[in-house]
Amino acid sequence: MSTALTHLECSKCGARHDADIEQHLCSCGGPLLARYDLKRARVLLNASVLAQRPADLWRFRELLPVRDGQNVISLGERTTPIVPLSDGLLVKDESPLPTGSFKARGAAIGIARARELGVRDIALPTNGNAGAAWAAYAARAGMRAHVAIPAAAPSIHVRECTELGAEVRVVDGTIADAGKLVARWVASDGYYDASTLKEPYRIEGKKTLGFEIAEQFEWHLPDIVVYPTGGGVGLIGIHKAFEELRALGFMSNRTPRFVAVQSTGCAPLVRAWNERRTESVLWENPNTVAYGISVPKAIGDFIVLRILRETGGTAIAIPDDAIDEARRRIARGAGLLLCPEGAAAAAAADELRKSGWIHDGERVLMINTGSALKCL
Ligand SMILES: *Cc1c(COP(=O)(O)O)cnc(C)c1O
């Protein structure tokens, strides 16, 4: 596969870890990030090499963590389209991916690498889409998924995970409570903990979103990326992709300002941003139609907040009625039915334009993270 993967590095204390054995968090509690020999990748990967490769997730294989091509698993994921709206907003539409959300990216690479490391059973808490994606790719890889899902999450996800052969447990409480159950499973049954950022490779899958954006923008990045943020993996992944491609010499302009969008019903990152904190505080009693971004306390919160600071970005919370309004307006006006999380991003872009934070003529890209059809 010619991966340039060298080691894992703690995002908190910088400690170095072996990438070729199963790893979860650093002993200091920090999530681990995959690191590559970027000098070597620079020799192997350039625009003319890319032009000859199929439009799939593995186009950027030098910067992905799988060593042996036999461990690659695919459900036919392809480059997703960028759809412009009449007001100039550009929508990277992730709904055509397998299992109907961009969670497929994290699961495709995460499961491939877990298989390479000899894993048989994976476990994770989910508000729905991650569970479905990991269940699907686990089934494809001959592995078993164990999923804990809050009772308030849309019930279609329970059916979806069950159909895909996962063991599904419905939990009274939030995703944080589901996470506690998964921690017990991991301790008692030895399952591979695939919770957000508790293994290093989901981020690497989400990175493919950043690779695609860079390539679709012909290496001249948009001015602003608006991202509906729950655990923040997608935002961290897109940013990591841009930085790695920059080190390879692909980029011709500055890194975009990142905008983290949450719902006013669950906005721990927005509150931390407004209070100029470097970490968030647990959000009590989350309540929003945008389940995918209903995460009371993200383990990678400090990384998200660091990226917002470093790129001159911001964080903004959108009420559910504005999410519904944006969704209806874009569905009827543009024929594009956004998921609630995507609609939150669209509403945020609108609000930031009105407030003057987004200037006329700036190129703004938002991510529609999944299919609307699961939430109707
Ligand atoms: C998981 C999810 C998100 C949030 O993704 P993170 O990378 O965890 O911030 C947003 N939208 C949808 C539809 C999701 O399923």
Structure summarized in a few sentences:
The protein is of the alpha/beta class. It has helices at about 40-45, 45-50, 105-115, 130-140, 155-165, 175-190, 200-215, 235-245, 270-275, 300-310, 320-335, 340-355, and strands spanning about 5-10, 15, 30-35, 80-85, 90-95, 120-125, 145-150, 165-170, 190-195, 225-230, 255-265, 315-320, 365-370.
Hetero groups: pyridoxal-5'-phosphate
Based on Cα principal axes, name the global outline: globular
**Helical fraction:** 25-40%
Q: In DSSP terms, counting alpha (H) and pi (I) runs of 4 or more, how many helices?
A: 12
Which sequence of SSEs, written as H and E, runs from N to C? EEEHHEEHEHEHEHEHEHEHHEHHE
Q: What's the CATH C level of the largest domain?
A: Alpha Beta
Low-confidence runs (pLDDT<50, min 5 residues)? Answer: none
Mean pLDDT: 96
| Spatial gap, N to C terminus | 41 Å
Count of distinct strands: 13
* Broad structural category: alpha/beta
Could you outline the blueprint of secondary structure elements for this entry?
Blueprint: E1 5-10, E2 16-17, E3 32-36, H1 38-44, H2 47-51, E4 82-84, E5 90-93, H3 103-116, E6 121-125, H4 129-140, E7 144-150, H5 156-163, E8 167-171, H6 175-189, E9 192-193, H7 202-216, E10 224-228, H8 233-247, E11 257-263, H9 268-274, H10 301-311, E12 314-318, H11 320-334, H12 340-354, E13 364-368
Bound molecules: pyridoxal-5'-phosphate.
Describe this structure as you would to a colleague:
- This protein has 376 residues and is α/β, with parallel strands linked by helices.
- It folds into 3 domains: 67 residues; 193 residues, Rossmann fold (3-Layer(aba) Sandwich); 91 residues, Rossmann fold (3-Layer(aba) Sandwich), CATH 3.40.50.
- Helix content is 37%, strand content 16%.
- The protein has a 6-stranded mixed beta sheet, with helices on both faces. Strands 8-7-6-9 form a 4-stranded parallel beta sheet, sandwiched between helices. Strands 2-1-3 form a 3-stranded antiparallel beta sheet, with no helix packed on it.
- Helix 3 packs parallel to helix 4, helix 7 crosses helix 8 and helix 11 packs across helix 12.
- It is globular, with a radius of gyration of 19 Å.
- The model has no long low-confidence stretch (mean pLDDT 96).
